[in-house]
Amino acid sequence: MEADGLTHTLDFQLDIREGDPSLLTDGTLESRRVVNEIFRLDKEGWDWDDIEDAVVDRSDHVQNTTQRLVAKATTALREYYGDEDHDYGRPNNNVREPFPIRMNHGEGYDLSLDGDTNDIHFRVSALKHNHVRGVLTGSPDHVEQLQTALQDEDDEWRVGTAEVVPVDGGHELHVNVTRTTADVAPKEDAQTVVGVDINEDCVALAVLDEDDIIASVIIDYTLIKERRHEFFTMRKRMQQNGQTAFETVLQDREKRYVHDQLHKISHDVVEWVSQFENPIMVFEDLTDMREDIEYGTRMNRRLHSLPFAKLRSYITYKAAWEGIPSDAVDPEYTSQECPRTECEHRVRANRRGKRFKCVECGCQDHADRGAGISIAKRWMSKEERNVPLLKILPGFQQVRREASGRVDRPAATPSLVGGHQTESGAGVLR
Fold first, then answer.
1. How would you label 266-281 residue by residue, b for 16+ Cβ within 10 Å and e otherwise?
2. Buried b (16+ CB within 10 A) or exposed e, 100-115
3. Which of 41-50, 237-246, 260-269, 357-366 has the lowest mean pLDDT?
4. How many Å apart are CA 367 and CA 245, to the nearest integer?
5. Per-residue DSSP letters for 198-224?
6. Euclidean distance between CA atoms 232 and 250, whole angstroms
7. Tens digit of pLDDT for each residue in 373-404?
């Protein structure tokens, strides 16, 4: 199946060889001023078309860059007005934090490939009439993808918008590259079915074919929930003490942290799934989940401890980039259903936290791994595939993703690629 186009964001460091690096800092501060003005005028009730005309006239960025900033800011406003959950609150002014410089290729920035060295040269308009030039450096995979896009003569690749992003006292260039003709394998050709169960603290993956369960893994990411709770507590204390000046700063930091972690988790998931033959990834269809059930304040906060839909979109997007299709099934009772095909008894008493024990047949399993198995089996049944009996469930691999810090679980670190399985193995992904 040919997709309309898949976009991938490639990250690069800037080896500046011409121009003052401080211009990039000035440019990100000017971007913040422009975005602040957009939010201020929106609060005053301005029409968005009039806002664009006003900020373009006053901006110290080139016109196209300012237009890209307007587009990004109004997109955030549009999401706020159209999202009843308002997870992060209304986009608001932030006078202290720099904001990425957003640019179009060939206008705000330009890339070229050196025919002799194969280096990727860049030019960035940090401000009007002020440029920095140099060479991009980055991971071999990202460099190779961008080189391929720049060498393309058949219109199969497109280099799009990019952002200069402040990172650890310096700056990176994040470039959007689109593969305009991306081939995703047909669902009917799938030979292995990967059931994906996304939870607030882990994602469980179970791989089945028509004969048996092939492999399974549970990737823990409890740190995201813990960090978001820390951010929530800090904001709450600020509100109680009337110290709201830094509240928007905390919101921005939280959003950047979660965004970065979700991308890393989705990369790990797709990398692990890619080892299997002709896989398809199957998720629970959670459309309108929050609208169907009335939750209390505490449960709503728990649901927001991980953006389930966003993680799923990152996984499916990265999977499609690798040619892996995805689908969804009815989520009802997957976490309460016995994974053994001959039983499949469903009752709430089967599950106690992460522990699953079927009250009918006595089958025991990790509850999230069992849900992944049920999701895969449900898709196979829907597609009229042979569903394996699964009389005996093998052990599973369990790893823990941590950004940094002490590991308080066994530190043997099995590779995620290769289908290694242990009865209760635990490792660390960095």
1. bebbbebbeebeebbb
2. bbbbbbeebbbbeeee
3. 237-246
4. 43
5. E-SSEEEEEEE-SSSEEEEEEEE-HHH
6. 9
7. 999 999 999 999 999 988 778 888 888 765 54
